């Protein structure tokens, strides 16, 4: 097997070749590795190319995230109405309007915050299933290491109870029983034979075997699923349509308020208080 047949590691990273489907012998060719595993030096070099075998956790202030939902066109209209309410010389009814508008603003922001936070919790729950440790063959010796150091081409050992640390192809040995329900929704453990692919985040329920790592981190089936869950807050086509309708309504309201101000004060000579009440009703 000439390693010159293989693609570059950058091409492997970009998933130029389908390592899940090709014969296991070709997997070793493409990954430029052997069943004796990688050296520590080669592992470190590949870690620079593929990155650590973990998913990034976005950390942000929940307070700032909540306040962010108060900064959008619809909230601007409500905030403007609140300012108009207290501009009426602080009289009783105006303070009631001010408080009422603020309550509506907080409720609207709370609903949006809870919905997005739930999506974030779902992604965090997926990430919690990642294996913290793994048994890997480096420099011809088996050792237990952090799963984060794994790279494509590593040889790992899997036994009963282990969480699969990365996407891999099984080598020679007895079939495994793998629980991958969290990833695929299958209710019962599935049988995986030598040559089959196993997914990061699934659990070994029966058997013991070695495997060659073919994908790590965000490039695993698990990583792609977590990314999809984490990106559910992206605006879809239907949401864009609703936003466009909302923006049209807001522009109509602002235009109507400007016309009403011109009619009430310069033309009809209304009192200040009457004008404020009309604007709030608008």
Automatic annotation (TrEMBL):
Record-annotated membrane-spanning stretches: 241-263
GO-annotated molecular function: ATP binding; ATP hydrolysis activity
Localisation: Membrane
UniProt domain Cation-transporting P-type ATPase N-terminal: residue ranges: 18-90
Membrane topology: Multi-pass membrane protein
A single Gene Ontology CC term: membrane
Pfam families per the UniProt record, alphabetical: Cation_ATPase_N (PF00690), E1-E2_ATPase (PF00122)
Main location group: membrane
Coiled-coil regions listed in the entry: none
SMART domains referenced in this protein's UniProt entry, alphabetically: Cation_ATPase_N (SM00831)
Keyword list, A-Z: ATP-binding, Membrane, Nucleotide-binding, Transmembrane, Transmembrane helix
Stored NCBIfam families: ATPase_P-type (TIGR01494)
Name used for this protein in its record: Cation-transporting P-type ATPase N-terminal domain-containing protein
Gene source species: Vanilla planifolia
